[in-house]
Amino acid sequence: MKEITLEELSKWNKESYELIDIRDDGLTAYGMMPDALHIDSEEIIGKNCSKINEINPDKKLVFYCQVGRKTHGLEEEESLRNRDCYSLEGGYISYLRSLSENVTLREERQHKAEESIRKKFHKQLFTPFAKACKTYQLINEGDNIAVCISGGKDSMLMAKLFQEIQRHRKVNFSLTFLVMDPGYNKENRALIESNAKTLGIPVTIFESSIFDSVDNIEKSPCYICARMRRGYLYSKAKELGCNKIALGHHYDDVIETILMGMLHGAQIQTMMPKLHSTNFEGMELIRPLYLIRESDIIAWRDYNELHFLQCACHFTDTCTTCHEDGTTSSKRLETKKLIAELKKDNPYVESNIFKSVENVILDTVIEYKKDGVRHNFLDEY
Fold this sequence. Notes:
- The protein has helices spanning about 5-10, 25-30, 50-55, 90-100, 105-120, 120-135, 155-165, 185-200, 210-215, 220-240, 250-265, 295-305, 330-345, 350-355; strands at about 1-5, 15-20, 35-40, 60-65, 85-90, 145-150, 175-180, 205, 245, 275, 285, 365-370, 375.
- The strands form three sheets. The protein has a six-stranded mixed sheet with strand order 8-7-6-9-11-10, sandwiched between helices. A five-stranded parallel sheet has the order 1-5-4-2-3. Strands 12-13 form a two-stranded antiparallel sheet.
- The protein is an alpha/beta fold and about 375 residues long.
- The longest helix has 19 residues, at about 220-240.
- The termini are far apart.
- It is globular and about 80 Å long.
- It folds into two domains: about 1-100, Oxidized Rhodanese, domain 1; about 100-335, 3-Layer(aba) Sandwich (Rossmann fold), CATH 3.40.50.620.
């Protein structure tokens, strides 16, 4: 299939071609190019696609995927025979990168993003961020915090909130914005860099070979990948003189983890707001987004027209099967839907799940573990 760049496409008459997004629903829900028509590649490959047949045969067809790989070879499909087809070079990622190349626009977007944190989303974002930092004592005098940025919406917002709270100067602490490249393809890494530049986040990038290491692991590769990534982050942060690493898990991650532990792990546990590292002496992990709702993060992202990585796993163009803590998105999505369903009858269900691990009544617990030691109610009955 012939390739076409964004620059070349911009010179065409918009009435002369149809722009087609062939990514799956999970990715298109995260954002599409303006005026694009969504036709999942599964509807085209090996089939006579009715949606393609409905498009004016005189129009050129310009296909795009995530990074420009999946579109190649489509022209041999039955629906595309005798059609003038093109593949957008660099795919959707190239479009996102183009948005941050205009310096004036970049400065405007940074100002808008910061201003929205101070005003429009102050109550939803900055207030719970500051509350979590105070309630759980996440920031202390003299801290050097490694703000770990994966490239997604949560970690990018976390970086901006840290910059904002540092402006208040109530506590003296320093920040290192740390990005680990575990083997990203060049398009995904470039997107992280351009987003950081757009938002005014001075990132420090280091490389590892984690993706190559887990390439051939069949059982729980996402879990192992997540564990390895955290170890590398601890190690690099300590090397840079940091005493803490900050991760971007939010309120919804917490309640989903509690429920998933019961439903899938037969245990009651939570995602802690902070914890000491067992393998890196003197290091601590903190989660300052602990009280922030995911819907508010999404609202901030969309209001500022920001486009972040959903996942940069190299097993697919963008992996939609894993999560930051190594759990599969199918289990998380299932849990999200369950909570949403329960909320229809009980609007307090989310806060009740969250507070349940703050109100554990040990007198009614049959058995619990503390420091690896099991305690049974019969021990003191």
